[in-house]
């Protein structure tokens, strides 16, 4: 089994980051000087994926433009002799084979993934959410693929979070089978502290077996009247093993202003020029 396809759902409205996301996709929010979605595509590529489908929607054309060749800009850079930047832009053009498909009605993450059915076919595939980043020495997706190929099962990424935050995430009820690898007993979407079976939250990285599409097709709209991926995985887990893998790295998101700000600071610390600025500001 070789996993070579990825789906990046990026059609959501990004209501938690309005008004910034009124006229720009949240996946294009810059992490210093590189949009979040480029980190996601690079993670997929570093994990051995060479065929990527981005699910877009209204107001998301910047994503397609970004991965397309920008002849005019490239020409100006060539003329001005700015060859380092030209090389950077050419690398973006050539990152991967990227396809696009529009989700016309925003009926939820599960619905967005269902759109990818004919692209994926009968193969296991990876899902990377456009607003979650994982800073890690071994790409999170590569680690999940490693376990999924060994187990022949779906594997989803999880991370321990403070109990008081479980109401914002999907959470798993799971038994540890080896270091950081869990067999899932059940999944619960946004539970209260009392209902939560653990503090292991599901983040935006999944390796899924193709049977997930059958379950997505049979999933009725749930919370917020959206087709929830967690509901489909819950039904699938009753008939097929699903595993959870704790990430080996740091989970960062761009979904709202607080998390986005923390993500910026985290990346700024890796850049000597910006680290100097943070120190000057006493941060
Ligand atoms: P979120 O739950 O973060 O939703 O979606 P959102 O609309 O992007 O943001 P908020 O909550 O309104 O602020 C998780 C991922 O699923 C995609 C989003 O683009 C994001 O990457 N998604 C969500 C879709 O592609 N389609 C949908 O209908 C919903």
Rg, please? 19 Å
Strand content: 25-35%
The strands making up the biggest β-sheet line up spatially as 5-4-1-6-11-8-12-10-9
Q: Let me know the average pLDDT.
A: 94
What would CATH call the architecture? Alpha-Beta Complex
Order of helices and strands: EEEHEHHHEHHEEHEEEEHHEEHH
Give a structural overview.
By secondary structure, the chain is of the alpha/beta class. The chain has one domain (about 5-280): Alpha-Beta Complex (Spore Coat Polysaccharide Biosynthesis Protein SpsA, Chain A). The protein contains 11 helices and 13 strands. The strands form 3 sheets. The protein has a 9-stranded mixed sheet with strand order 5-4-1-6-11-8-12-10-9. The chain has a two-stranded antiparallel ribbon with strand order 2-3. The longest helix has 12 residues, at about 140-150. It is globular and about 60 Å long. The chain starts with a strand and ends with a helix. Bound molecules: uridine 5'-triphosphate. Uridine 5'-triphosphate binds next to helix 5.
Pick out its properties.
283 residues; alpha/beta; Spore Coat Polysaccharide Biosynthesis Protein SpsA, Chain A; 9-stranded mixed sheet; two-stranded antiparallel sheet; 11 helices
Write the layout of secondary structure elements.
Elements: E1 5-9, E2 30-31, E3 34-35, H1 36-46, E4 51-56, H2 61-66, H3 71-80, H4 83-93, E5 97-102, H5 109-114, H6 117-120, E6 125-128, E7 132-135, H7 140-151, E8 154-160, E9 170-178, E10 181-189, E11 200-208, H8 212-217, H9 229-237, E12 242-246, E13 250-253, H10 257-268, H11 272-280
Parallel strand pairs: 1-4, 1-6, 4-5, 8-12
Antiparallel strand pairs: 2-3, 6-11, 7-13, 8-11, 9-10, 10-12
Helix pairs in contact: 3-4
The structure holds uridine 5'-triphosphate.
